[in-house]
Write a structure and sequence with these properties.
Elements lengths: L15 H5 L42 H18 E5 L24 E5 L4
Antiparallel strand pairs: 1-2
Protein name: Cytochrome P450
Organism: Notodromas monacha
Keywords: Heme, Iron, Metal-binding, Monooxygenase, Oxidoreductase
Length: about 120
């Protein structure tokens, strides 16, 4: 990196928000659209621009375990509950304005209605 100012011992962290919201990488990057990560057959696409677990030497060692656990947890919730909006509650997925590494939407409420299994 000859054109950059370097400081010994500096920790460099990837700007994941900037990577995931770059219009060069994702069409309509400001719109919540989980389907952008699926191929035509409904399978997950392998895209080097998707980096939810950091990059380089500091990449998360538990990435595979985290993905499997999240998938199983989500499947369990979808099998067990129907989800509905709370009437009269205003929903937005816009992230809060703050100076943190992780961006997330404002807290919101949902109704989790148990499914009846026979």
């Amino acid at each position: 990196m000859p054109d950059c100012l370097q400081f010994q011992g500096t920790i460099v962290v990837s700007a994941l928000y900037a990577i995931h919201h770059d219009p060069k990488n994702f069409k309509n990057h400001e719109i919540f659209n989980p389907e952008r990560f699926l191929g035509e057959a409904g399978n997950l696409i392998n895209n080097s621009k998707i980096v939810p677990f950091q990059t380089g030497r500091r990449q998360c060692l538990g990435e595979t375990l985290a993905e499997m656990s999240a998938f199983l947890g989500l499947v369990y919730l979808l099998q067990t509950f129907n989800f509905e909006k709370v009437p009269g509650f205003h929903y937005t997925l816009e992230p809060k304005e703050r100076e943190e590494v992780v961006h997330m939407p404002e807290p919101y409420k949902i109704l989790a209605i148990p499914r009846i299994h026979f």
